[in-house]
Amino acid sequence: MARIYLSPPDVGPAERKAVMRAFDSNWITTLGPEVDAFEAEVCALTGAPSAAALSSATAALHLALAMSDVGPGDEVWVSTLTFVAPVNAVKYLGASLRFIDSEPETWNMDPELLASELTAAAEQDRLPKAVVAVDLYGQCAQLDRIAEICDSYGVTLIEDAAEAIGASWKDKHAGTYGRFGVYSFNGNKIMTTSGGGMLVGSAEDMARARYLASQARQPVPHYEHDEVGYNYRLSNILAAMGRAQLERLPSIIDRCFQINATYRAELGQLDGIDFMPWDERGKTNGWLTVMTLAPELVTSGVSPLDVCDALAAQEIEARPAWKPMHQQKVFASVPLAGGAVSDDIFDRGVCLPSGSTLTDEDLERVIAALRGALAGPTNTR
Ligand SMILES: Cc1ncc(COP(=O)(O)O)c(C=O)c1O
User: What is the domain range of residue 289?
Assistant: First the structure.
């Protein structure tokens, strides 16, 4: 039985052709015409003024924080419900963290909680240097409100849209609300370069990002360095692959929507089964379909891990929702605002196979396996 994965890459002849085009041109290294074109095409899609193609979204977050002047003695506030990358990037710079809980509407950073925390911090003269708001599972946070709140306190907003290229909030693209936006092209994302990322922002910031990402080498013939830099640029070959993926992104998103609609139609009527809300003020890219189990179901013995185990026994990959950062041992001492919403999402959320390569037959197999798993010990609907 072939294994069904959560979100495998959707690549084929178009990507192979693009990689070979770059290969045959002999631009094998970092930088090159494919990188320039990929950056321009991401700007055309997102409306971002400028872009810097990098080796990962984690590198992009690191540079965004460094360029926001974050360092020891500063605080950076990050969504607690996230993959660990933005939190690690804050630690690379020796800064302190504070975690902000999600809201039920989008599962992303709660803007009103952020506002009340910033008010309290301003009164005590301990405002953070930056806020990193994450757009989870392809859906944007309430970015207009978050940007407005950060602006009113003069705090830099970095938008971690690693999971959200192709998504928008109130008709403005994910990644374009803050001073910096970040996309990931990791192998499990909605589009991939096998590994890679993009930082977007103003032309001035992106010129500096490209310079810092190239070992901060001065533009002179010999090797001249006035400050510490990084080796973070994307290779020309991978950028070519990214361009082919970008062209196919609309059809990939369409397929993710069909998959989500099928799950909802087939499983949504079952008692105790629901899905991550898709807030209609925005447009998700549909990257992952996340199912939620009602609390009664969980207490009756059908937990997210049980569901994942039952699917794994049938060669189907599923995962619990992100485990909040405040529950991670390594960040146990980090101050937290709220926490109940993200705890609840982690307790009840299951990420289902959602990749655009999933066939209708695969989907049927997943749905049948889920029906079996959800019948569980006490759920006898
Ligand atoms: C929210 C979020 N931020 C950052 C990253 C890091 O991306 P990358 O693997 O490209 O460094 C990921 C996923 O990998 C992510 O899901």
Answer: 249-375
